[in-house]
# Entry
Amino acid sequence: MARMAGTAARAEALLGLGVVSTTPVAGGDICTSTRLRLTDGRGVIIKTRPQAPDGFFAREADGLRWLAEAKGARIPAVLAVADDCLILDWIEPGKPTADLAERFGRDLAETHRAGADCFGGPVDGFIGLAPLPNRSLPSWPEFFASRRVMPYVRAAVDRRALTTVEADVIESAMRRIHDFAGDPEEPARIHGDLWSGNVVWGSDGDIWLIDPAAHGGHRETDLAMLALFGAPHLQRTLDAYTEAWPLAAGWRGRLPLHQLHPLLVHAVLFGGTYGARAADAARSLLDGSAAEA
# Structure
C-alpha cells in the first residue's frame, strides 16, 4: 500500500495531474509496472526501478520516440521520464488475430524502412539490464560481431553460462561472418528486442511495441527474434512483411546468425541452456545446415 502511494505521488509530481486509482501490472522481472488512472480520465503506466542504472529509463524513452518517428508500428507516447521511472500511455490489451498480424508485418516493414544514420547509435543502451554497446562500425557484419556477439560471449563465459568450447564455436562463426551475412543492406531502424512479450496486441485494433533496445541494425534481426521465441500468427506477419518489403534471398538461413545475440543475452542474464543453444546456432552456420533450412 505504501509503495502504491509512493508511485502515485511520483506520477503526480511528474505529470502535474492527480491519480485516481493504482493497479499493479503483472509480468516483467526488471521493473515494477503500475497502471494509473488520472484525474483527466486517461490511463497511463508507470515503470519504476529504484537505483536503476544511469540512463536506463532515458535510453528507453529515446528509443520509443525514435521508433515513433518512423510512423510505422505503433509506439505508446512517452509522458514523462526520470532517473527512477518512465510513464507511458496505457495500451489496453486485446486478442491476437491474423488480420492484426498482417497489419503488424506491414507496419514493421515501414518502421525498418525509416532507416538509421549508422549501424549502432549515438550512445550505449541496455537490453534488459545488460549493457548494449552501440558505438558504430562501417558495416553490419563488423558491428554485429564486435558489438552484439563477442561482448556477450565473454560475459557468458565469465558467468559460467557458456563453456570455452562453446565460446570457441561462436568465435569461429564470427571470424567467418561475412560468409553468412548476405548482401549488404543500409542500416534499418530496428526495435532490437522484439520478442512477443514486447508486442502488445491492443484492444483498439492496433499492435504496439514496447521496451525497445532500439538502434540502427539489420532488419532481419527483429524478425529473427520474433521467430526465436515465437509469436501469434507469426507466418502471417512474415508474409505481410515480405510483401511490403521483400527480404534478400536466403534470409531464413540467416535466422540463426541473428539469433546469436538474444540467445547470448539470455545466457548472460538467466543462464540455463541459452549458452548451449547459441553454440548450436553457430554450429548450424558453420556446417551449412542453417542455409538448408
About this structure: Residues 2-89 form a domain with the Phosphorylase Kinase; domain 1 fold (CATH 3.30.200.20). The longest helix spans residues 140-158. The chain has two domains: 2-89, 98-292.
